[in-house]
């Protein structure tokens, strides 16, 4: 587990130790949540503390946060890897404001938020919270319904899968140190299944004309998953498969904030990751199987998404 402890006022006055802790805190927020500008707002400046535990590429973090505020800019969102972050609060509250809405995160609710979202947040008093960062490539093989939401607030008292997801993350605390690599991979899959089901259950059940494009996009994504081993996938392929114009293909993916290329890439990377973890196939063979030009091409794309080379990822998480 990774820990960053709060600096007491006496240390804060000395300067150096506080600055080091503050830098570590900001780095942790950047790496485990998302890049953003942070500012302490307490009467006595201080940093928080965290405990980190991971299920492969799923980053679970418990935070003890000081009074603070932050800004997530458009440029930061554009340069960050696409991911979802799940937020729950145990004590205190956090106010999150995006261009579309404002919510107050309190105990009893679970927020699913895309790293594509921008806006401000305020922690008006010390708070404890748990977050889970999930790369979109991890969710690519799972059915999330009409698409991945930018913003979804769920009441854990009413949405049973949201409560189960929260309980599952709590259960990881007691078990993670005793899990074998095979069991870690199984737990990862179980958590992703819960998250996908929770997102599906959070979508409005009624379908009208405005829902056509998101549903079409989901059908097209299933087609991509079924054909990802067959070589290059073009817009014309999807247009022909569903008897629509190429413009409709672009609109279908844009309706959920995606492009066809990003979805194809996510499925290829998810499949390559699965082979790295579950098989002893060479990186070159995996690259060829999933449509990358060669091992170097896979390596570049893989490092961009997972911040590790394929070989290092297999050494850390492989179970074959």
From TrEMBL:
Limits of the HTH araC/xylS-type domain: 218-316
Q: Does the keyword Transcription regulation apply?
A: yes
Alphabetical list of Pfam families matching this protein: AraC_binding_2, HTH_18
- What InterPro entries is this protein classified in? AraC-bd_2, AraC_XylS_family_regulators, Homeodomain-like_sf, HTH_AraC, HTH_AraC-typ_CS
Report if keyword Transcription is assigned. yes
Question: Any idea which GO molecular function terms this record carries?
Answer: DNA-binding transcription factor activity; sequence-specific DNA binding
Any idea which UniProt keywords this protein has? DNA-binding, Transcription, Transcription regulation
Output this protein's name: AraC family transcriptional regulator
Provide the species name: Nocardioides cavernaquae
